[in-house]
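I am still learning, so can you show me any protein sequence you like together with the matching structure tokens, please?
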Amino acid sequence: MGNQPSMSSSGGSHSMRYGSGSRRVPGASSKLRNVRREVVTVGHPSRQAERMSTDEAQYSRSTPAAPSPIFITNQDAVATGAAAAAEDSGYPLSEAAYGLSERATQRQANSSMLFGTQRVTRDDFIPVKTIGKGSFAKVLLVRKRDTGEIFAMKILSKRAIIARNQLEHTMAERSILENVRHPYIVALRYAFQTEGLLYLVLDFCAGGELFFHLKREGHFPESTVRIFMAEITLALEHLHAHNIIYRDLKPENVLLDRDGHVLLADFGLSKLLARDNQKAMTYVGTVEYLAPEVITNQGHSFAIDWWAMGTLMAELITGLPPFYSNNVNLMMERVLKADLRLPEWMSQEAQSLIAGLLTRDPLRRLGSGPGGAVEIKRHPFFRGLDWAALLRRQLPSPYRPLRRDALPDSVENFDSMFTSEPPTFDMAAEEEKVRAKLMKRAHKEREAVAATAAPVTSMPHAHTTEALDALDGHALAWDTTHAKAFEGFTYTPGHRR
């Protein structure tokens, strides 16, 4: 459920934070770490001066010491060698190995009974805590009245979705969450709507965001990162087998359960391809993790997820993404041109895997060959790992995010900035924030038009006016169009909000 939101070029933000605070640029006021086609900004609170420092030439961390970085200039050779070693491996695993069948994924699109026979409404849940907020959504920890079960409930404003041009992303997330079942992907339990709001009820991940723990720990030992990366590899392999590009892998979107296992969350930027050889063209993602082919608008496919995994792996081991800079344009230039720098204390196996994943040519990138994810699974970094046992969740995680005596509804891994807020279903405050941003944008656009003396018919703020109309409820007749506009969310009348 992600962040102070990731951005796509098609409109506003969709992703939203599930646990910790917004990422900000050290010493750069309040610019958020988002990416847009026009102006890309960046931020990261864990990269502030007390933890680590950066300059425009090199990276340094307080712990562990990182003497002489190793320069890897021939990343393509790494990927080619790994692909050659992956022949006849038997991977990727079949649908049967995942416990899936075609029938299991053919559910009714308009049902709230995703994992059972009971229809639910908002009245079936008691709000316990606020655990995340975004630009037009928030996440509550809720308890189901009849069973006492704990869930995470993501609430989205319909008006804000339309105003921010996020309907397609919202419905894509709901569809993907319903139809993709995997041990390392967060599970959707119910989806329903009232006249003004959408509700996604998901498994509660008591470990919170991996980003929360990265801020606290600074970095992780390779033994821990090995399990994290292996579980993420299985999740991405499964998505790719279903023609889904994840497109927003980052520590904010990797959740931990109470046992320390990862679950991918927030599919608002994901893309379902119609065919294997199709390419997506939308400029979308979070800047630190953007693959070169996304930055250059060459079209992209599944390989961008492996690039993001290489970036994430380097960040978890060292504390920083490998091409990080406070200057966004410089960071993107580094992604396109700079040599990969890794500290010499990092193991050769880890360096090799990161270099293979960060191969600039997507056709030669590790994981992009005929063997797919097997090229990654057979890499020496994962030598000796029992992948079948990992898929069955039989391998313990070396990282424990919770105290053993923590209660099922513990929110100790969630930012107090959120948990201190009263947990309510009301979304008026979130809608007003969207309105304020739109009003500010409309004012700036009117000033720009006035400065150029452009005729009224060519005023560029027409789309902003339409967005404000949507926020006021003028764009859709909510009592008659909910079934068409938000098909897939069971309608529960009786609640205006």
Observations:
- Residues 80 and 364 are 6 Å apart (CA to CA).
